[in-house]
Design a protein that fits this description.
Length: 359
Amino acid sequence: MSQATLSLKPDLADATAHWLAFWEHQIIDRPACSIRAPKAGATAVGGPPYLAGAVGDWQPVVAQALASLEGTYWAGEAIPAYVPSFGPDQMAAFLGGELIVPADDSHYGTDWVLPNVESWDDSLPFVLDPDNVWWQRMLAFYRDLAAAFEGKAVLAHLDLHSNMDTLLALRGGEKLCLDLALEPEAIDRAMASVRSLYAPIYDGVYEAGQMARCGTVGWVPAYHPVRTNTIQCDFAALIGPRQFDKWVAPALAEEAAHLGHCVYHLDGPECIVHLETLCAIEGLDCIQWVHGARNAGFREWMDLLRRIQSLGVAVWVPCGVDEIPYYHGELDPTLVWYDAWAGSEQQADETLEWLKKNT
């Protein structure tokens, strides 16, 4: 295990101990709690926008990302980290999909891949071409970020949208839904192929980002001194338990096994039907519940959070520090991670002390 130090996180050793306890569903003196606050005396710099670095010169992105981290106070388990991204379909782009990156923000600030699978027979197996332009660009971007961040901060791993989300990007939603019913054998082969590429892609990014030096943060900012990430399948909202258990759950189990410890991104009420299956996956230690637009706010889902905890899995709680006492009175402290923000360093430190006194 790395014993590295970070200048922007002088208490990294203590934070690491708390993270390791969190992954084992234990506590040392308080629940896991990441708090970010403005750094006293520092100039506040906003972080790079989403998709920064996907096109053009990324050196200004590297400089802005580091300046933003330097202007932040990282309290408790908060780890100074930057999350690179070429968009939700970047894994599909690595596998040959044509990535469309709009020149402006007229498309809600995102990008997408044009579906290119017309026939599974003609498209399988998927191949990670080492010369793929997006793959090479991402690795080079990570290498430059790692050089600039050395000894100061860490790099988060990618939001890969792997497993069936990759098939969704490459095939298109309507065709993929029909294929599940009409061509299940083809889906068997497609899932086997895409599953085989998760580890090589994860490991390639891990190496380029020099994550072995001092650990990894997932795109949901949970930290492990060796490796972690956030896994997901947003397509799960469109399928029932039988299809999820047949095709998606085994892929997620492989990803969790490769990572050792991970967070799951549970996106929207339509996905709750899969909760028991998800919580039974070894190494899937925490769930990030996202309630979604037009639904009740996060605080209104306390019954769901308690249900997740009853299944032996921790919950991610995004909040201001003033909300922590409320959640602390409602949830099992051994199975919670507060991902919080504060208005000052003093407020952040006082919140951590309050948790110690009240746990």
